Each structure stands twice: as structure tokens, then as C-alpha cells.
Amino acid sequence: MPYLFCLIFAFSMTGLFGLQGAVPLGLSLENGVIMHEGKPIYTAGVNYIDAFTRTLQSSEDRSYEGGFEDLRSNEIRLARVALIPWWPYEFKLYFEDKAEFYRRLDAFVQSAEKNKIGLIFSFYFKSSAVPDMMQEPQNAYGDPKSRTIDFVRTFTKEVVERYRNSPAIWGWEFGNEMDLFVDLPEGNRGGDSVGPIFDKKNKNSWWCPAVRTEKDSLKTADMLHAMKVFAESVRALDSSRILLTGNARPREGAWHINHQGKWGKDSPEQYLEMLMLWNPEPYLITQHIYRQDEGVTFFDQVRADFRYAQKNKRGYYLGEWGWGLQIKDRLDEPENAEKTARMKLEVEEFLRVIEEEKMQIATMWVYDFSTKSVDSQWFSFTGKNRRSWVLERLRDFNRNREKTK
Q: Domains in the chain, start-ordered, CATH in brackets?
């Protein structure tokens, strides 16, 4: 009898999916609408950016387990996570013991599954990291025969093939704000986060070149080529999950430096041209936005960008948002009531825009950032530090959206 029941059940499920099609795992885009489990999704999540990469420095570090539990208890369903660390040396485990690297990543994904957290995997978070590891200049992203592009293709396929059947993976993201480092008139040369001196005593410089040259100055064509390779590599294995560029909002002079090689004030039409150029299909429109000025102009621009994406049925992801740098509230200093009030006001302003415009997915910067940096002091929040009010506010916001959607 049990055997007969299994046969009947298997046949009925096969018939069901054969007629209607299986519901895609993760997030997918249908006619400009972001879908999850067959329904439009509306949720505010967090950047939990170094949740996985911190484990590469210690097999004992499973702090993400408590983090995922903290997020689940506050009904946070979505987290954006980096796969490759900021510094090349922090990724040595992958090359020295790939099996152990994936053992740790397996445990990470399994913990997300257990806590029902959806992950957006951001692959190439620091644009210079992969070329440095491959001992090539940054413009290798534009060379189809480079070791850099071969790594992008290989690593992307490894990760997607391994985790494409996990319900915890909601989307695949190429990188992080590479658009802010392309076409710069003065040159990027690897950014200011990697020093020009190769010093074996300074582990931060391992795998970084001794000098930077003009070949380390990224161009739009280099970025677009790498993004194309990434998208093709993902789509060869996963036909439905959303693809994200990880790009920030284009600079005000993006069109001018791209077309004329010098700074200038872009027109609204030129701005939109760059927005679409740097977020090509099949990618969604992705933006990272922080409050930079006073008044309504800033949020009017955010609304206009979202509406443009919706008009073109491209889908929109507010990948990073939060209070501005100018507040400078440090966790290692006594709490300042005025600064806290300003932070709360800016969070409310963003949430109002997200709600009124019906933005579907947005991840706030930044949950439990462990790296010793400005971000860990000025932006990091958890359920246990004095900024626990952030998670409580996101919880209430998501609850209200569930009631009213």
C-alpha cells in the first residue's frame, strides 16, 4: 500500500508540474515583477556582507548561525552576502584547500536554509581582487583570454551549479559598485584600498602588485564584458533567478567621463542612458543610495529612477541604503541622542519611499559588519547593539506590508 501511494503521489506531482511548470526557486522576474514562490514579493532585508567571508579566516567562526537566528526572530527574510573578501589574501583557502572552502560554504547555506533566510550572493565584491589574485591588471576583465575572465567563468559556474537547487539562494549578483571605478579621468589603478608596496610583513598586500599602471584603470567596456561572461555562466545553469549588477547609482558626471573623458554635469537624459548602459539586460536595475543632501530633491530622484525601471519592466533592486556618512555616529563612543534621532529620521524617509513606490526588494546597509572599518562603527547594527531599533523597525515595516499588499 505505501508503495502504491508513492507511485500515485509521484504521478500526480509529475502531472501537476508537467502542466503548470515548477515554481522557480529563489526570486525571478515576470513581466517586470519580482516573484517568489509564484507570488510578488515585497520585503526589506539587510546587507550581511561579511557573514561568510569571515569564516575563511577561521574554521571555528560560525557567528552567522547566531546572526541568521537574530534575523529570523526579527522576521528579516533577505540578506545580501559577499562570496569573495575585500583583500586577496583572505581568499587563500579557496586555492589551498578548495574542498574545505566549499565545506564552509555548504554549512553557511545550510544554516540559511534552516533559518529560512534568502541569500543574494555577491560574487566579485572588490573589483581589483580577482585580477590581483590572477596577477593581471584590472583591464583583464575586458580580455576574453585572460586568467581573470577564466576565473570569473569557472568560479561562477562552480557556485551556481553547487547551490542552484537550494531554496536559500534568491539571486546572483556580479559585484559591488564597479561602475564607480570605470572611466575615471585620473584613472582608478586598483582603487585606494590596495597599497602600491608589496610587503610580505603586511598580509594586506599579499597578491597585490608592487605598482599600478594605466592598465589598472577600468573602462566601461571591461566591466560590461565581465558582466556578460558572468550572466552567460549563470544562465547556462540557472534560467530563472534574478541577475544583479551590484552597481551604485551613476555619478552625476558619468556620461561625460564615459563619452568625453572629463567631468561635467549630465543631463537627465544622459543620466538615464548611463543607468541603462551599466545595468544591461538580463540584469535588473540595481542601485546603492545614501542620503547626501537635505530637502526633497534627493528622494524625488530615487523615485524617478524606480519609476523608470518599472516603466521599462526591468525590475529594481535597492541593494544598499541607509543614513548618510555625515552623521558619523560611532559605536565605540557614547550614544548621541541627536545623531540617533537623525538616523531614525533618515531610515523613516527611505521606508516611506519604499512603501509608497511599492519597491519590492531593498537591503539596508549593514548588519553585523565585523571588519574593523568606518562601516563597522558608523553603520553596523544588530539585535544586541544600541542600534537594535533598526531590526525592530524593519520587522514592523515588513509586517505592515504583508497586511496591506
A: 2-251+330-339+363-404 (3.20.20)
